[in-house]
Amino acid sequence: MDALVVVLNLVKHYAGHAAVRGVSFEVRGGEAFGLLGPNGAGKTTTIGMLACLLEPTSGDALIAGASTRRDPMAVRRAIGVVPQEIALYPTLTARENLRFWARMYEVADGEAGRRIEEVLDIVGLRDRAGERIDTYSGGMKRRINIAVGLLHRPKLLMLDEPTVGVDPQSRTNILETVKQLNREGLTVLYTSHYMEEVEFLCDRIAIMDLGQIIAMGTHEELRLQVGERDLISIATHAARIGTVLPASLRALPGVDDVRMREDRLEVLTTTGRRLLPQIVTQFVTHDVPILAIEVREPNLESLFLHLTGKGLRD
Ligand SMILES: Nc1ncnc2c1ncn2[C@@H]1O[C@H](COP(=O)(O)OP(=O)(O)O)[C@@H](O)[C@H]1O
Ligand SMILES: [Mg+2]
Which of 29, 165, 231, 295 could be cross-linked to 4 through a Cys-Cys bond (beta carbons 3.0 to 4.6 Å apart)? Predict the structure, then answer.
């Protein structure tokens, strides 16, 4: 268990306002870790401190063993940051922007040209790289930001809500690109207020609200915290249901309740879709047709609601 990132009780106050109130977590090498929280939760402030752009009020973080307070240069070498706001020259082409950033990141001159083409390939914009940035859509600019963050081959890529305000095509491209980079071994720290994105990308998730982490774990661990049960809804012909099938479903281990709703049977279970084969077998055994099956799981949105009494998106 080598932690690439160790966050130790980070606190940030802005003129008396506590934006981050004691945040601690670890990210292991190769992992994709998500910070999920609504606007104002403190995600950007946390990323800012990890990226050595903001000085913590107290606490520290170690990235690849280097302290953000004592050795910010080593931290900067280890990380690539994709910020929310775009830091690109509008009148230069994408390739020229990357050349500028390659110099900033001290990518060796001999390697820079090749590396720029590589990162353009990764974000799928090599064929447009000769065009000026001010002709780019917001989503394309965001993809160039990711390319910039990758130039110096960081161990850790931090992305702060990279899909906010971008077109759907770029959104998909960004999510797929990050997923692929993580598959190839890059450690990822990803912030979002979109539940689906952290579910898609992240091995472990910390849920933030009002400057604190209020829940942390794998998707499955967080789901179990909700204490809600899965609902499996099976559409059939009402006249065929009878009484034997509901009774035999009720008798299956893991089934909490079976409800009849006109032309549907609803099975409430704590073991989720793992029970599906046994449920289907019961229908077959009792010769009751299945027209459709739907599984509704409690999700991170319901966990957030459960913990805070409000939704992720206001
Ligand atoms: N430069 C700043 N000065 C004062 N307050 C700030 C500043 N930046 C952020 N905040 C406040 O800190 C809290 C956390 O903000 P932020 O880290 O941007 O949250 P998130 O990225 O999760 O939306 C919010 O209440 C925000 O208004
Ligand atoms: Mg933010």
Answer: 29
Query: Are residues 10 and 23 in contact, defined by beta-carbon separation less than 8 angstroms?
Result: yes
Residue of minimum CA distance from atom 16 in ligand 1: 42
Is 45's C-beta closer than 6 angstroms to any atom of ligand 1?
Answer: yes
- Within-domain flag for 147: no
In short, whether 40's Cβ falls inside 6 Å of ligand 1 is: yes
Question: What spacing in Å lies between the alpha carbon of 40 and ligand 1's midpoint?
Answer: 5
Any ligand 1 atom below 6 A from CB of 83: no
How far does the centroid of ligand 1 lie from the alpha carbon of residue 11, in Å?
12
CATH number of the domain where residue 194 is located: 3.40.50.300
3-state helix, strand, coil in the chain (%, to 5): 40, 30, 30
Q: How far apart are CA 181 and CA 175, in angstroms?
A: 10
Using a 6 Å cutoff on CB, does residue 39 contact ligand 1?
A: yes
Residue keyed to tokens 């966050």:
7
- The residue to which tokens 């870790």 are assigned: 33
| pTM for this entry | 0.82
Indicate which CATH number applies to the domain containing 234: 3.30.70.980
Distance 173 CA to ligand 2 centre (A): 21
Do 242 and 196 belong together in one domain?
no
Of 208, 224, 240, the position where a domain reaches its end is 224
The answer to whether position 34 is within a domain reads yes
Give the count of beta carbons closer than 10 Å to the beta carbon of residue 58. Answer: 11
Cα 246–286–247 angle (5° rounding)? 20
- Host domain of residue 194: 3-85+153-224
Q: Would you write out the chain's pLDDT as a tens digit for each of its 314 residues?
A: 589 999 999 999 999 899 999 999 999 999 999 999 999 999 999 999 999 999 999 999 999 999 999 999 999 999 999 998 778 999 999 999 999 999 999 999 889 999 999 999 999 999 999 999 999 999 999 999 999 999 999 999 999 999 998 999 999 999 999 999 999 999 999 999 999 999 999 999 999 999 999 999 998 888 877 666 777 889 999 899 988 999 999 999 988 888 888 888 988 887 777 889 999 999 999 999 999 998 877 778 777 877 887 777 75
Ligand nearest to the CA of 46: 1
- Are 76 and 163 part of one and the same domain? yes
| 240 located within any domain | yes
Atom of ligand 1 nearest to the CA of 38: 22
Distance between Cα 156 and ligand 1 center (Å): 23
